[in-house]
Amino acid sequence: MKLLLYLECLSFLSLPQELAASETWPNLKSYTFTATPSSLYDASLLEPPNLNVTMIESPTFSLTWTGDSKTVKGCTSTTQCGLEEGGTVDDQDIFEDFAVYAARQHGSSGSCWGPPNYCSADYLIQKGKIKDDNNGECTAYKISPPASPAQQFVASKTKLLLKFPQVASYSLLKYTPGESDSSGGFSVDTKFEPTQADQFEMTEIVVSDLTDPVIYCLVESDHSFTKPITKTLDGCSTTQCTLETDPTKFSYNDVLGNLGVFAARQYGTGGCSGGNYCSRQYLVESGEIKDDQGNKCSAYKVHPANVPASAFIASHTHLMFKFSDPGSYSVLKYVPAEADKSSFVQVEEVLEPTIADQFEMTTIKISTLTDPVIYCVVESSHTFATPVIKTVHGCSTTQCGLEEDPSDVAPIDMFGNLGVYAGRQYDSSGTCTGDKRYCNSDYLIEKGIVKDDKNNMCSAYKIHPALQPATDFTVSPTKLMVKFDDPMVHFLLKYTDATDDSPGFFSVVDKIEPATAAQYEMTEVKISTLTEPTIFCIVAEGHEFTDPANSYVNGCATSQCDLEDDPTDVKYVDRLGDLAVYADKKDSCNLNPNHCSSEYFIEKGEIKDDVTKNKFAAYKVHPPLSPATKWVISSTKLMFKFSAPLATEYVVFRYYPRLTNDGKDRLMIEDYISTATYDQYVMTEVSIDTLREPAYFFVVSNDDKLPSIWPDAPEGTQTQKATVFVDNEAKLALYAQLVDIKPRSPYDLSSVGDAPDTHGHKYSYRKIFYPVKKNKDGDDGVVWQDKNDQKIYVTWFLAEGGTETLLLQDNTEVLMAAVGDGGENGDIIFLTMPTGNAGDKVTTQPVHGHKWSSKDMSFIQKSFDTSKEKLNVYSYFVTGSSLAWNVDIGEVAWVFPRTMTVSSDGLNHQACTIPILDPETLDEFRKFGGSSHSFANFVTNTKDGFLAVDLGDNYPRGVNTHKITGTTKKNALVYEFKTQHATNNKDGTMEVYEEISTPEKTYYKWSNDNAVYTEIAHPAGLVLSDESLMFIFAGEKPSLDNRMVGSNLNTPRNLGLVITDGNLEKVLSEGVTSEGGFYDYGGGWKEQSNEGIVWITDFTPNTKEKENWESATRIKTALLSDDRVFILYEVWYPTHYARTDYLIIDKYGAVILGPKTVPYQLRLSPTDELVSDDGQILFYGNDVELPKLIRYHFEEITPETGCVSLGKKECKKEKDCDWKNKTCIEKKPDPCADKEKKKCKKGD
Question: 964 and 913 in contact (C-beta within 8 Å)?
C-alpha cells in the first residue's frame, strides 16, 4: 500500500468536471533557496619588528684618599649675614675650593646664629681622588656630619660655599659608593654658572642636616662624570606645582639625562604632597632599544619605588622629558615578549615641546609600578612611533571629556586611526568613570589586513579582551572611536573569521559621518564585553566589504521604543541589506540579555520557483546564538525596506523547505506591509527569537501575482490539482481539494489553541471544521465560521468536480458544534451562543440550535432553555461542544461543557452535560451528566446509541468514557493522572503529605488541581470490528506520580491507549498497570489506578533540557482495514510547533509503521476529527498562503506494485484511475486502428 497526498484547487462556485480523470495530477511547485556566494577572506596580522634591549654598563670607579683633611667650623665666623654685607670667608671655614657658612634663620629674612645652642659646627672634610676605568677622574671631598651639633636646635643651617677656577658651567656631583669604595656612581646634585673666577659663592647645599658622610666632586658640566648611566631619582623633590610656575625649577635629584620625574598634583588639580604621601627612590638605568632593521632609540629602565609612601599616595610620581629641539615626540613603552607574542613598543604619550632643553611633564605614572618598565622617546616620525601592536588603556579618555572637548583623547587610548574611550554609565545619561574598580582596561590591539579573493582589502585591528577587568563591576563601558583623514562617510566593520562550518564574513556595526578630519569620532561599539579577540576594519562608504553576503545581526540594539520616536533609528548592528531586526515593546522595551535574545546569523540569497523560474531576494535567518538567559520580554522581529517605485502593499512570506527528500515545500504569509516609505525600514510582526532551526523569508509586492506552491490551473479551467507526496511504506493515498473562498476566511489552524507548556492548553479548544454530507452520491462538505465577521457557511465539494459555498447563518455568536445526517437528507444541525456573560454570576446566556436542509434550504431555529433548572448556562466555555447524529435511532447526542450559574458556595462552576435531542425539533429527550470540570469532549455513534468521552479534572479526574444506550449510560474512567497538592495548610488542619514533600517544598494532604496533564484524541474512542473500544490520548509518564508536578508540562507528553470491551466493563489491552491516588479538596483520599496502558511513543526520553522536550498534541485517529489504526498528530516543543507525524498501529496497540514525519507543513486543529466514510478518511484544514479551504482524504491502495485500489476495483496503472467515481477507465479500441499497417488520413 502507498500513501499519496493530492491537492485539488477549485473556485468556490459550482463548476462542471473540468479535467479528464486520466490526466496525471502535477506535483506541488517546489522552491529552492540559494545562498549568495560569500567572498573568501584571509585575515593576517602585521609582524612587529624583532626588538633587542641593551642596558649600558656603568663604569667602575675607584676612590683613593690623599690624606689631606681639615675640620671646618661652619658657624663661628662666616655667616650669610656677614657675606651679604661684604664680609669675607674665614680661613677656619675653608678647605681648598670648599667652604662652609651659617645661613640665615628662615631663609633670607632671619638672623644668623652661632654656636653652641643654635648652630651645629665642626665638619671634617677629607680630600681624595675618584677615577673610572675610562681614565676619567675628579677631586673628591668627603664631608662628615657636624661633630658639635647645636645644643638647643638648629636656627642657622650650615651650607656649602664653592669656588670655581674659571667662569664656566660647573656641576656639583654626589658620589654614591657601592659595596666598597672602589665601586659606586655619580649623580648631578646642582649646576652652577659662576660669573667670577676664584671667588666663593654661596649655595643652598645644606651639610648641617647630614647624618652620614657625603662625597662631592666639583667638575665642569661637560665632564664625563656628569652623564651617569644609572641613577636613583628621588621622585618627590620636583613638583608639578613648582614646574607650572617655573619649568626650570627642578631638582637634579629627579633628573637622569633627558628623563626626569616629578610629584604630580593630588587628584590632578589639588596640591603637591611629599613626605608620607609620595613614593621615592626610583632606580633608573640607561640603555638602548634596537630592531633588526637598525632602527634604535635611547632607553630608560625605570624600577618601582624603593621607598613607598608610608601613608598613601597623594602625589603620584610622573615622568618628564626634555628635547634638544622643538617638535613632535612620542614616548614609547617597551612590552617584553611573551610565549605567543613578540616584544613591541607602544606609544604612551605624544609631546610637542615649543622650547628646547626644557622638561615637558607627562601623564605617565611610575609610582604605581610593580615591575621595571622600559621607556624611550623618539620623534613622532620615527619607525618605532608607528607600531603594529599596542595595549591601549580604555579608561583614561571618557565620553564626558570628549563631549566638552573632542580633542581630549589620552595618547594611551590611541592606536592609529582607532581609539578607545570610557562611555557614560547607562550609555547616554549616566556619569563617566575611569576608576579601575568600575572600568575594564588594558586592551591589546594588533594591526593587520583582511583581504578577499578579489583583492579587496581593509586595514584591520584585532582587539583582545580587557587584560584588567573592573575589580568591582563595570560602570563605564569601553567603546571604540575612529578618526579619518577626510570628513566623509565611513563604516566600522566587524570581521568574523572562517570556521570549519562557515566562511569568514563582515558585519557593519556602525556608520560614522565625521564632521572634522583627523579628529576621533565616538561610536557605540563596545569592547568591554569582549570574551575573545575580535577583528574590526574601518572602510569608506561604498567599499565592497560594507555589503556582505551574510552576517550576524544583534536583535537587541534597536527597539520599538526608539523607532516610535524616530523610524530611521535602526542600529547598524541590526541591519543586513534590506532586512533589519528590532526588539519589540510589550509594556516597555527590555534590551537586557536576560530578557532579549540576540546574535542572529543571516544569509542573503534567493528563492526560485523551480517551475516558473521566478526569483525572489530572500534571507535565511538562524536561531539566536545568545537566547535570553531568563525569559523573553522583548521579542526580536523583522523589518524590511524597499526601493522605488513603492508598491501599494507588500507581503512577507516564510518559505518552509521540504522536510524529507521526497517531501514538499510550503509558503506561508507571515505579515502584510502597507505603510512603506522609500529606503526606510518598516517594522513587521514576524518574530524570530523563537526559531529553533533556520527560517527563510522574502517579501513581494501584493500588486503582482503572489508566489504559491499550488500549480496553476490548466488553461480554460479553474481547477488546480497537485500530487504532494508518496509514501511507499505506508501504502495509503491522501487527497485534498483546495477552495479559494476570498474574501471569506476561516480560522488559521496554526494560530488557534495553546502550546503544551501553557496554562490555556488544558482547556483545549473548540472544533473549527465540521464535516457533513449533502447526499449519498459523493457530495460532501464542511461547516465553518468566518474568523472576521462570524458568519457560518457550508462549503460543498461536488462529485462532478466543482464546489459551492453557501451562507447558513449571519450572526455574531460562536459556532459551538455542527453535525450532518450522513447524507440521508442533506440536513445539518449546528449550535451557537454568545461568548460573554452578564457579569452577575446568575443571568443565563442563550444557546441556539439551528437545523438547515440542503434539499429545500428550509431552516428551523430553537432557543434552548438555559435556566438553572435546565441546561444551566451562565457562559460559554472555550472547549466547545460535540454532536453526533444517529440516524438509525433518530437521536442527536450533545456533549456540552459550560460554566454554570452561581452555586451555594458562591462560585460559578464548570461541568459537562449530555442532552439527547430530537433531530426533527431539537427538543430534549433526556439528559445525562458528564465530568466536572470538563476540558475536552468527543461523541460518536454506536449501532444502538452513542459513545462519548470527556476529560475531567476532579469529578472524576481522568479520561471519562460514556456508553449511552436509550435511557441508560455506563461510565468508565479508562485513564487517570497525577495531582499537584497544595503547598499551604489551608485552615490549619491539613497534614503534611510526607511521601512527596522535599526539603525545598512541603505539600499538604489536600488539592485543587485543575491541570489534567493529558489530551484526548479526536476521535477519542474507536469501535473495533469485535465491538471492543480503543481510547487514545497523550499523557505524561509515569501517569500517577504526584511528585512530577508544578508546571503545565512536567515530562514529554506521549501517545497512549487503553482497549476495553464494548460495555466498558473490562480492560482488554495489555500494558502498564499503576496504582496511586490523591487527597481531594476536603482532604479525603481518592484511590486511582490505571490498567493496560499501552504507550505508543517515547519522546526525548534522554533529553534533560525542557526546551528540547517533544510532545504529541492535536491527535487525530481513524480506522483502516483489518482494525489497523492511523494516528496523525502534531509534535510540539513546550512552546511551539515542530512538525506533523503519523503512525499506524494494530488492534492491540503495537506500532506497525512509523512514526514518520509528514513531508509537508500540514497543520492540524486542536480538536477537529478525522471522519471515516465510504473508504475515505476525511479532514479539513486551510492554507494561510491565501485564504483557502482544504479538503483532505486518505484512501488505501493495494500492495501490488502499480496497482491502485478504488473500492473493490483494481486499476493496473495510476493514470487509469477515475478518482472521482472510484472506478477504472476502460480502454476503448482505437477506431482508426490499421491492422494492415496502413495509416488513416486525418478525419477517417
Answer: no
